[in-house]
Design brief:
single chain; 329 residues; six-stranded parallel beta sheet; 12 helices; binds 2'-O-acetyl adenosine-5-diphosphoribose
Length: 329
């Protein structure tokens, strides 16, 4: 769309924040990098740069649902490195909380799965985790949902977490047909994997492959083909976003928003990348990031480290950005 250059300075951005009553803040991985959590696409430091050793044609495949269904070990090779582990949050998280405290935050749409918005005290009613989170995990086979943290020990140990509900069912079946399955020994157990259709197929194990199947919980001959894999409820490519995303945006926020602030995202992933163009044309839009984007035309680009930019905005607004605040305060 064509825009009249009505706003373009840092002071304009500060004025917009001062007068706005209903701000949408759209965030990405860039707001957590100052805490040592890598983003996805920054060259050299982003997660996708670090996945070259996996030999995937596209590193994004680690988050592709078809790849996961075919071979969950690819995701679980890296999952332990992206588990939410931080209690701290960045000055930018604190800035979003400040907008909330001042009664200006309409919604924080976050693409992040580190759950740090919650740590910073963003009201769950004002937070949409567009790409889900590690807060829960579900069985890909039977849908059984568990608290995310319950699978963390297995993930950290390099194992593929499996569904306890399926395992219980499978154990009963296995017990009643143990004789017919008795040829399945623990030595060949490790040579099986679950194919897309849920059936087992034999695979060659390579040195360094971790044991997807060693938990004694599931050490029931013949059970593994019927026991689903647990997947954290983060949104993979090929999966639908939580309903809350589209519903809230279209039915609630679109009619109320008077300012949109986009922070620390490359806006490469739809449909979140389309939020900005979905808002009414008169709503001013500010972009804060290290890297400019060419495919979206913002009213104001504030390029740089987002923690520095929000601190400067607060200074000009006379707002105190107390980022030493203890999480949960
Ligand atoms: P990206 O890695 O694509 O973009 C992060 C942006 O933040 C880049 O433009 C960086 O330059 C910028 N950035 C990094 N650190 C910054 C800092 N300290 N201050 C300011 N800017 C900074 O991450 P996202 O846009 O969040 O999806 O990625 C979107 C989605 O792609 C993710 O949710 C994930 C990924 O595939 C799924 O996994 C489904």
């Amino acid at each position: 769309r064509i825009k009249l250059q009505k706003y373009n300075t840092v002071d304009d951005a500060a004025d917009l924040l001062r007068t706005a009553k209903n701000v949408i803040v759209l965030t990405g991985a860039g707001i957590s990098t100052s805490l040592g959590i890598p983003d996805f696409r920054s060259k050299g430091t982003g997660l996708y740069s670090k996945l070259e050793h996996l030999g995937l044609s596209d590193p994004q495949e680690v988050f592709d649902i078809r790849v996961f269904n075919d071979d969950p070990s690819i995701f679980y090779t890296i999952a332990k490195d992206i588990l939410p582990s931080q209690d701290r949050f960045s000055p930018t998280h604190r800035f979003i909380r400040l907008l909330q405290d001042k009664g200006k935050l309409l919604t924080n749409y976050s693409q992040n799965i580190d759950n740090l918005e919650a740590r910073a005290g963003i009201d769950p009613a004002k937070l949409v985790q567009c790409h889900g989170s590690f807060a829960t995990a579900s069985c890909v086979k039977c849908g059984h949902k568990v608290p995310g943290e319950s699978i963390f020990p297995e993930v950290k140990a390099g194992k593929i977490p499996r569904c306890r509900k399926c395992a219980l069912g499978s154990r009963k079946t296995a017990n009643s047909s143990r004789t017919s399955l008795s040829s399945s020994t623990s030595s060949n157990k490790n040579k099986r994997k679950i194919a897309k259709d849920g059936t087992e197929k034999k695979i060659k194990r390579r040195p360094g492959d971790f044991d997807s199947n060693s938990d004694s919980e599931f050490d029931v001959p013949g059970d593994i083909g019927s026991v689903g894999v647990m997947k954290p409820d983060i949104t993979f490519f090929g999966e639908k976003l939580p309903d809350e995303f589209g519903d809230r945006l279209a039915e609630h926020d679109r009619h109320q928003v008077d300012l949109c602030v986009v922070i620390g995202t490359s806006l490469k992933v739809a449909p979140v990348s389309e939020v900005v163009s979905f808002l009414p044309p008169g709503v001013p839009q500010i972009y804060i990031s290290r890297t400019p984007v060419g495919h979206v035309n913002f009213d104001i680009d504030l390029l740089g480290d987002c923690d520095v930019v929000v601190a400067e905005l607060c200074r000009r607004l006379g707002w105190e950005l107390d980022h030493e605040m203890v999480p949960g305060d």
